[in-house]
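EI: anyone free to look at a 376-residue chain?
SC: sure, send it
EI:
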Amino acid sequence: MTDKTAFVYDDALAGHTLSDTHPMKPVRLRYTHELLQAYGALDHPNALLVSPRSSTDDEVLTFHTREYLEGVRSLNGSGSSDDAHVFNFGPGDNPAYAGIFDAASLSTGASLTAVELLLSDEVDRAFSIAGGLHHAMPGYAYGFCVFNDPVIAINALLARGLKVAYVDIDCHHGDGVQLAYYDTDAVLTISVHESGAFLFPGTGHVQETGAGRGRGYSVNLPLYPYTRPDLYLWAFREVVPPLLERFAPDVVVTQLGIDSHFKDPITHLAQTVQGFAEAVGEFAGAAPKWLALGGGGYDLQAVARAWASAYGVMAEIPLSEEIPAAYAGRYGVHTLSDHEELELTDQVARDAKDFAESSVRAVQRLIFPMHGLRTV
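SC: here you go
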């Protein structure tokens, strides 16, 4: 056992481009690494920088179909094939590109590298920022995601007999992960997200509670557009910590998408970097082991600041509010936290509050009794 927290990264993870116009920019991973380097955080005694490996076919097949695996592999050389559309590749959200199989295998392998570090007891906490691709489905790409590394990583933990809770704070519902475990009580999945009534993928409603043995083990906390950090944290704390405490997992897997940020160009929540970091801090002590994954985030410097902050929280490494000059001068960002928030009308603020309160009450009514928790 060690006090170190692993950071799984290599520049190869940030070397591909989905398309010139696609909002998912892998360079955001490099920015996060550069920011942590500028702080000297990765040289801290608590830090352990680890290079990833690629996933194997057998690992990918713990969730995806053989046909889909081979379909992605067939795109790797030129980025095109006659049946790309069969697997939902094409113009728009899921473009195919040369090297797609290699890139997906490496990001998936990065999350599996983090799993191996946890299983070996080399670390108790690990952050794979290239992971968190939670929308990918067994037989097709979806929502910018090719291989569903959260499911593949969780399956590796389950194979070792560990009890796993998955908490997803991406702005989008963690639909692929929910699908994987919807009918089992082996994994508790919790997703806190902008309501599917307003945002892709249109799922994640409170009433989606699981099926069969999984009834009560799929938890969804949808929020209204423009939910601010204080309201977000209130709703989060009303639902997530009590369920984690009662479930008592061996490992908590967290998907830390930061497309909830108020500057994100494709979503509508009103989170700040410091509000995000405060939510991340709630996971400390939730389980003996903590696997953190990346996820969405399309304002690139918000991503770098938020994920650097998250790693600081995980590794208990203090990061100064003033961003080091070398990074600040290059990228034009000067403070780690946000010093502005989205301006909202009183009506929108009231609507967001009413919506959050309704969602929390519904979760507590539908889910809490199944776990022996009192309904407030």
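EI: The longest strand covers residues 187-194.
SC: 👍
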